């Protein structure tokens, strides 16, 4: 299958889901996503409970230029199957040394490998390795969390 994101049809057109690698966007990526949403959709941007960005109102004609723009920003996986498997929520409060920023790309690489196992739809992971978990109310099938160490 070609590079891109599989669109979901809804009442106002297609919804394109963007899963930023590591759950982070640069300021430039955020500005460009807003520009792309206006230029190739209806300008509405939603944030899902699993930290995905949804661009709404995309049409069959605007899909290709939107994907090209997102790809230029480094936000598109090699194929929709890889994007679908890379469903990782990373704590927004990670800190250097807690393991989160090392775990997220290693897990993403494993999940998007050609021989990665097929997972059920919406199967997700949460990485929450800070001193206090903050993603306890976020839906996830597998959680990577730090526990208190006994003295």
Explained architecture:
The protein contains four helices and seven strands, in the order ββαββααβαββ. The strands form two sheets. It has a four-stranded antiparallel β-sheet, with helices on one face. Strands 5-6-7 form a three-stranded parallel β-sheet, covered by helices on one side. The mean pLDDT is 85. The longest helix is centred in the N-terminal third of the chain and has 14 residues, at 27-40. 30% of the residues lie in helices and 19% in strands. Strand 3 (45-47) and strand 4 (53-58) form a beta hairpin. With 151 residues, it is of the alpha/beta class.
Order of SSEs, N→C? EEHEEHHEHEE
- The helix tally amounts to 4
Helix content: 25-40%
Instruction: Tell me the major beta sheet.
Output: 4 strands, antiparallel
Tell me the strand order in the biggest sheet: 1-2-4-3
Q: Tell me the quaternary state.
A: single chain
Number of strands: 7
Quickly give the structural class.
Answer: alpha/beta
The value of Rg in angstroms is 16 Å
């Amino acid at each position: 299958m070609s590079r891109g994101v599989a669109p979901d049809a809804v009442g106002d057109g297609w919804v394109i889901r963007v899963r930023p690698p590591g759950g982070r966007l640069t300021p430039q990526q955020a500005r460009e996503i807003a520009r792309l949403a206006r230029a190739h959709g209806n300008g509405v941007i939603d944030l899902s409970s699993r930290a995905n960005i949804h661009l709404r109102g995309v049409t069959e004609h605007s899909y290709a230029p939107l994907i090209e723009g997102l790809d230029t920003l480094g936000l598109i996986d090699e194929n929709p199957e890889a994007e679908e498997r890379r469903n990782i929520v990373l704590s927004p409060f990670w800190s250097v040394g807690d393991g989160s920023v090392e775990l997220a790309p290693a897990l993403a690489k494993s999940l998007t490998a050609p021989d990665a196992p097929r997972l059920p739809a919406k199967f997700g992971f949460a990485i929450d390795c800070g001193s206090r978990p903050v993603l306890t109310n976020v839906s996830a099938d597998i959680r990577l969390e730090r526990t208190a160490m006994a003295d």
